[in-house]
Amino acid sequence: MPDDIEFIDCASLSIQYDATGIASLSFVVLKNSMEDLTGTYTILTAGGVDFEGVIMSKIQTPIIGSGGWCQWQMQVRGVGNLE
After folding, report:
1. pLDDT, tens only, 11-59
2. What's the whole-model pTM score?
3. Nearest to 4 by CA among 82, 74, 81, 70
4. Considering all CA atoms of the chain, what is the largest pairwise distance in Å, rounded to the nearest integer?
5. Alpha-carbon distances of 26 from 9, 16, 31, rounded to whole Å
6. Are 44 and 55 spatial neighbours (Cβ–Cβ below 8 Å)?
7. pLDDT > 70? residue 1
8. Is residue 65 a part of any domain in this protein?
9. Hey, which of 10, 37, 67, 68 has its CA 20 to 30 A from 49?
10. What is the DSSP letter of 18?
11. Between the CA atoms of 41, 4, 61 and 23, what dihedral angle is there, to the nearest 10 degrees?
12. Is residue 32 part of a domain?
């Protein structure tokens, strides 16, 4: 099998802030194998904001008929730094 391919599906990215400024990020990572993710996904940059947080959940689902691809639904909570 070729090298692993792994990337965030940009259209799936959702960022919400609560009243205290804590950010909740939700996104899907696509990967061409069922192996665990190699990226950490705890430090992300989106819209010019650097986010640092912890993974609250990650759920793997195979993509039927894709030849071995899977998707990971990720939930990350943390803070955004505008500087």
Report:
1. 999 999 999 989 999 999 999 999 999 999 999 998 889 999 999 999 9
2. 0.89
3. 70
4. 46
5. 11, 9, 17
6. no
7. no
8. yes
9. 37
10. -
11. 10
12. yes
Enclosing H/E stretch for 79: strand 70-81
Distance of CA 13 to the CA centre of its chain: 8
Domain that holds residue 72: 6-81
Copy the structure tokens of residue 83.
């500087």
Q: Does 33 map to a domain?
A: yes
> Whose CA is closest to 15, among 37, 48, 40?
48
What is the arrangement of strands in the sheet containing 23-31, beginning at the earlier edge strand?
Answer: 6-17, 23-31, 70-81, 49-62, 43-46
Evaluate whether residue 45 is within a structural domain: yes
Which residue, among 43, 71, 45, 68, has the nearest Cα to 58 in the 3D structure?
71
